[in-house]
Amino acid sequence: MASETRQRRPSPTDLSSPPSSSYTKLDKPKRSGGGTDEADGGLGWLLPLICLGMLRYMSATTNIIHDCDEVFNYWEPLHYLLYKSGFQTWEYSSEFALRSYLYIVFHKLVASPASWWFGEEKVRVFYAVRIFLGLISVLTDAALVVALSRKYGKRLASYTLAMLCLTSGCFFASTSFLPSSFSMYAMSLSSALFLFEKPAMAVAVAAAGVILGWPFSILAFLPITIYSLVKRFKQAFLSGLISSLALLVLSFFLDYYYYRKWTSSVLNLLVYNVLGGGESHLYGTEGPLFYLRNGFNNFNLCFLLALLFLVILPVVKKKYVPDLLVVLSPIYIWIAFMSLQPHKEERFLYPIYPLICIAASAVIESFPDLFRDKHDPYNPSVLVKVASFLRPIILGLILCVSHSRTFSLIHGYSAPLEIYKHFEHHDDAGTGSVLCVGSEWHRFPSSFFIPDYVAEVQWIDDGFRGLLPFPFNSTLGGTSAAPPYFNNKNKASDGQYLQDLEKCTFLVELQLQRPVLSRGSDLTTWEVVAALPYLDREISPPLHRSFFIPHLWQQQNVFGLYKLLKRIPN
């Protein structure tokens, strides 16, 4: 008879023995049948790549534009580099030079071949760049999921994968053309490399996230960078130094090429906002709870669970300290720091979005551990079984509410992107047409949606007294220009509004249920050529406008009409 080895129940001495320096999934408790909770190989690359690929493609093709900064500070300069037309903001004036052309040129590597391939179909170039952004997100997030699987097992990795795919925050941020999104990609990849025990590469990617992406995200990358330096100082230091210097030098020379003066946009931005007392409050301020409310809107229960990670840490210390704690610590550092700043925007939290998913997944995965008997951890009690049963239910609830949020935003606010696509059907207006936009300037989806027969996009005065973007002025030098009409005080400039409204061939406006008549209501002057519903957030109930609830979403919310109007010939 073949001999068998039986596992003995661990004695209290075994339980109190010091833990290994680094937890792996092999340290997890075994099931009664003798097998581990996870397969030996963990999650492979195929499943994360397929799942993320599908969701990021959906994001690239359906995502709305959430911030006018994305359009005027990134899409418009890219459009100018490709087609020699587009809007310029004061940050791109060579007098201030706050924006790096390195970030724009990086995306031009994809946009240039796409513009050659698609010719005059500029809208397709727009979506080609978005798909490229989605591809970066797929690769970096897949690496993070695989790293979590190899170190902590399939369950934590699977939960994280589901949240990376379906939470509203990740769905929208993953294909936004913003430096904070690029820092988010870098955060995913840097965290993955750290968990893969490659600290030098993790530091190099962190440097790219800061210099090529968003310089202020340096605070979010500090924990991984510092711990990597502690573990392998020489390799991590040299890797970070070489990658930082290479990117800074490249940025320096690109800034000179476009601004036509020796300057560093990275340094200018930091000096303006930190040492120079940057007046970001001119662009709006929010209270200290803004990011907590915003985090709940974009992640619902997932965000609350992520904040509870530190609370459960004493119970799961052996499992998650130090490595996962190092990876997740930027959540709390970043939210605390950003909440102290007067000017707040949703996109400022993008760098930590993947970490929120990991932290919430770790809390859900650890539910049973909160109820285990520390003297007999392998004998599951009723509470442990109930906690295990609740894990997929809580995850399912998070994903359902996330889909509800995503659906509401896409279907409630997609009209600005969709209405501009109707221009391709009205080229009979003739070359030299003028598009006029009033109060809806901040929802302008970029010049990629303006066909060649429209010669100009002009702003018309609807009461806004801040500084608006002006077209890049090739006469003054294009990207190297320092136009006199720009200022850094957000004060309206003479000439930013079109005075003669008779020049307008097309008009874009939002008609809401308000007592004030809109310009387009004059049907003797304008004809409506396209109109789409647009959610009126001011008079719609907060719950119903934020989350899609079947039947009630249409019944309880109030909608305006987003219109494209064409002047009626005399």
Automatic annotation (TrEMBL):
Glycosyltransferase listed as a keyword: yes
Record's keyword terms, sorted: Endoplasmic reticulum, Glycosyltransferase, Membrane, Transferase, Transmembrane, Transmembrane helix
GO MF annotation list: glycosyltransferase activity
Domain of life: Eukaryota
Record EC number: 2.4.1.-
Localization in the cell: Endoplasmic reticulum membrane
Gene Ontology CC terms, in alphabetical order: endoplasmic reticulum membrane
Pfam family, one: Glyco_transf_22
Membrane topology classification: Multi-pass membrane protein
Name of the protein described by the UniProt record: Mannosyltransferase
